[in-house]
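ok so for the tutorial part 2 we go from a plain amino acid sequence to predicted structure tokens. step 1 is just haveing the sequence, like this:
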Amino acid sequence: MEQRVSLITLGVDDLEKAATFYAALGWKRVESPDGIVVFDLIGQVLGLYPIEKLAEDIGVDPSSLVPNAASTLGYNGRKKEEVDAVLANAEAADARILKPAQDVFWGGYHGYFADPDGYVWEVAHNPFSPLGPNGEFQWGGAG
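step 2 — the prediction. this is what the tokens look like for a chain of 143 residues:
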């Protein structure tokens, strides 16, 4: 298996509400079949899919699919001020701020929000991992 994540799918309660939330963050939808909403990212795709359909696809009861389940989605910005702006934009789009932006013991700056379905996002600036020319994150900034 090659070392990459190609597609992140979030099971959501209300597809259009979730799509509206991510569009309010400034993300652009791409054409996709009915019943799924897709956003192209840098080298990956974020898909929004009704949680009942996701459970059916997997072959499990929808109640067994717990949003977040001790994981986070990460967004890294180019500078500290971008963290503040992204968190403010997320809150305006109906996110719940879990941790306001603040300096972190390891030298970075971050905060957390939950989207309307409860998925937790960390918004961070890591001065030790500058983003590449197209916004791609690479640990330690190495290519």
